[in-house]
Write a structure and sequence with these properties.
- Keywords: DNA-binding, Transcription, Transcription regulation.
- This is FadR/GntR family transcriptional regulator.
- It comes from Paenibacillus gansuensis.
- By secondary structure, this protein is mainly alpha-helical.
- It has two domains: 64 residues, Winged helix-like DNA-binding domain superfamily/Winged helix DNA-binding domain (Arc Repressor Mutant, subunit A), CATH 1.10.10; 139 residues, GntR ligand-binding domain-like (Four Helix Bundle (Hemerythrin (Met), subunit A), Up-down Bundle), CATH 1.20.120.530.
- Helix 1 crosses helix 3 and helix 5 packs antiparallel against helix 9.
- It is elongated and about 55 Å long.
Length: 225
């Protein structure tokens, strides 16, 4: 039996918006209903709707003009089936990767300087589970995500953690079957170990170097896909 992938609310809302565009036969430049109207139409909270709009904007389905509204961007390059063309998804992942480099990269450096013994122990246990799942040939995407969340928590910066949490739906695209391949980034596993070792040794410079090596590896995988 295949695993059942968790679907986030904003993903469902994004699909509903795409269906609305298709059902109404909207064309490029047509305006979507206001945020207030869509909250009522889809019966969701404003935060889920905003995240869905951010996602659709990132993959060029809509464009947001501040103070004016939300407009259809390109109806011809998408069939509105909920599946983004590979090239657009690659561009989306690369854009989010830029954000990861800046924000998570800072979290890694801070974690190397601030991680408590308990947080290092939590990272150790996380990596032990990661290794066990990998050796058993099982899905490691969620334990991979858990590792990064523990590093962010270990940064000791509540504002940075909050900012990363606010974009978690976009961020998680790296861990929920990116480009339709749940094992796409499996080869980055060794970098988790070297990042952990640098954090455990309280070596911010080495932690940053290993994190950047991981990001470089992910970028190369995406571009060559």
């Amino acid at each position: 039996m295949g695993k059942i992938r968790k679907v986030n609310v904003h993903e469902l809302v994004a699909k509903e918006i795409q269906s609305y565009i298709e059902d109404k036969a909207l064309q490029e430049g047509d305006k979507l209903p206001s945020m207030e109207e869509m909250v009522r139409m889809f019966g969701v909270g404003r935060s889920s709707l905003r995240e869905a709009i951010r996602y659709l904007e990132a993959v060029d389905i809509v464009r947001v003009e501040n103070g004016k509204g939300i407009y259809v961007r390109d109806v011809h390059s998408f069939r509105f089936t909920g599946k983004v063309k590979i090239e657009n998804e690659k561009r989306f992942l690369l854009n989010v990767l830029d954000v990861r480099r800046a924000l998570e990269g800072k979290a890694v450096v801070l974690a190397a300087g601030r991680a408590t013994p308990k947080q290092i122990e939590d990272l150790t246990q996380c990596l032990d589970e990661y290794r066990a799942l990998k050796e058993a040939g099982k899905d490691t995407s969620q334990i991979d995500l858990a590792f990064h969340r523990l590093v962010i928590k270990a940064s000791g910066n509540a504002i940075l953690e909050s900012v990363l949490q606010s974009i978690s739906g976009l961020y998680e695209k790296f861990f929920n079957e990116p480009l339709g391949d749940e094992r796409l980034f499996d080869e980055t596993y060794p970098f988790h170990i070297t990042i952990y070792e640098a954090i455990a040794d309280h070596d911010p410079k080495r932690a940053e170097q290993e994190f950047n090596r991981m990001m470089d590896s992910i970028e190369e995988i995406i571009k060559l896909y």
